[in-house]
Amino acid sequence: QKGARMSFRKSHYKFQLREKQKVKRFYGVGEKQFRNVFASAVRRKGITGENLLRTLEMRLDNVVYRLNFAYSRNHARQMIRHGFFAVNGRKVSIPSYIVSLNDEISFREKKREAENVKAMLEDVKGLVEVPGWLLLDEAAHKAKVNALPTRDDVSLKEIEERLIVELYSK
To answer: Residue 133: its pLDDT value, please?
Structure first.
């Protein structure tokens, strides 16, 4: 019939795509970068979906945010780009840098002493719960990666990573 309303059925593809978009937006990752992270998750041993989320959790911008060193992941990304942080004593200005076990993340001395940084650190204190896989030394503004994050450590609980794996496995 002309002008009749079409009924849309919900396809499985739609749910898969929505899950992928949800994770991409949550972590602030672009499409190409997300594909690369997925490819590295496939190559690693273990469950691909959990490897994907573990890799996204261990990005430096996410770690800085989870340590309450920034207001948001975007703010953490900007601070990293401006050279505020060091990993194992070396300046890192790449937000997608993947931290590894026993890495030490710290404010660079010169940047930490700025008044606006001190005020920001007071504002964000307790904003996010620091996960168990990170050891935070609040007084020195340093943290250490003491374990790899598990699926339970991911702050995005309602995600179904198997749908993302199915989407990319086509």
So the answer is: 93
In this predicted structure, what is the pLDDT of residue 116? Answer: 84
**Which of 131-162 are b and which e, b meaning 16 or more Cβ less than 10 Å from the residue's Cβ?**
bebbebeeeebebbbeeebeeebbeeeebebe
Per-residue pLDDT tens digits for 148-158: 999 888 878 78
Query: What is the spatial distance between Cα 94 and Cα 21, in angstroms, rounded to a whole number?
Result: 23
Q: What is the mean pLDDT of residues 97-104?
A: 95
The answer to whether residues 116 and 78 touch, using CB atoms and an 8 Å cutoff, is: no
Ranges assigned E (strand) in 80-124: 85-87, 90-91, 104-107
Give, in order, the Cα–Cα distances in Å from 112 to each of 75, 115, 118: 15, 8, 7
